[in-house]
Design goal:
- It is built from 13 helices and no strands.
- It is mostly helical.
- The chain has one domain: TorD-like, CATH 1.10.3480.
- The chain is globular.
- The chain starts with 15 loop residues before the first helix and ends in a 10-residue tail after the last helix.
- It comes from Mycobacterium lacus.
- Pfam families: Nitrate_red_del.
Length: 221
């Protein structure tokens, strides 16, 4: 059973630089553990070492895992964690809308923010992919990126709880992200309980019109 618990790291003050650095490191940690990412572990560890304790320790914990585990095991664990479990999706709108028609409008909010900032996306990528949103907030438009993340605090907390329940090594990354965002409100708690009870809707529809936009193209995985 998912149990809500306040993350004490939220109370710690983080500078804008700290938040951007957390988002940048988290974006890489939550993306597929490619050879390029694994080659950056030492560099990321050094960068994380400059952060306050509240976010440094969770990130260093995951970086240690990436630096010591077998790459094939890391890849298998990533797929098992995020691709095979509906309650551990890295697509933020999936929790509320699943693969339903209503999800299209939610996805357009992300695409509109990216478009206004001049950011181009790979046509095959849905714009609510958490590593992408984190990268956007860290390197393109902090204000708009932080707004998108803050609007999805209930989803991020639900994902953290789901990962923690399964003893996933990725749970500390979500704790670090949440430490950069507004505290969970009473309304957020109600929304978390609602999403946890209902689970993602299961109506199957094609999302290609929302994933592929001729005005947005580029080189992201």
């Amino acid at each position: 059973m998912l149990t809500l618990a306040r993350n004490p790291a939220r109370a710690a003050g983080l500078s804008e630089r700290d938040r951007r650095l957390v988002w940048r490191i988290a974006a890489l940690l939550l993306d597929y553990p490619s050879a390029a990412t694994l080659a950056m572990v030492d560099q990321l560890t050094a960068a994380a070492g400059e952060l306050p304790d509240s976010v440094r320790e969770p990130l260093l914990h995951v970086l240690h895992e990436l630096g010591t585990a077998d790459p094939l095991q890391l890849a298998a664990r990533y797929v098992e964690t995020f691709d095979m479990r509906r309650r551990a999706s890295l697509h933020l709108t999936y929790y509320a809308y699943g693969d339903t028609r209503k999800r299209g409008m939610a996805l357009l909010r992300f695409k509109h923010a990216y478009r206004l900032a001049g950011m181009r996306l790979d046509e095959s990528e849905l714009p609510d992919f958490l590593p992408l949103v984190l990268e956007f907030a860290a390197t393109v438009d902090r204000a708009q990126g932080e707004r998108l993340l803050s609007e999805h605090v209930p989803v991020l907390e639900l994902l953290r709880l789901s990962l923690a329940d399964s003893d996933s090594a990725y749970a500390p990354v979500l704790a670090a992200i949440l430490a950069t965002l507004p505290p969970i409100s009473s309304a957020d708690r109600r929304r978390i309980a609602e999403l946890a009870a209902q689970g993602p809707p299961v109506e199957e529809v094609g999302l290609e019109p929302f994933a592929m936009d001729p005005l947005m193209s580029g080189g992201r995985r």
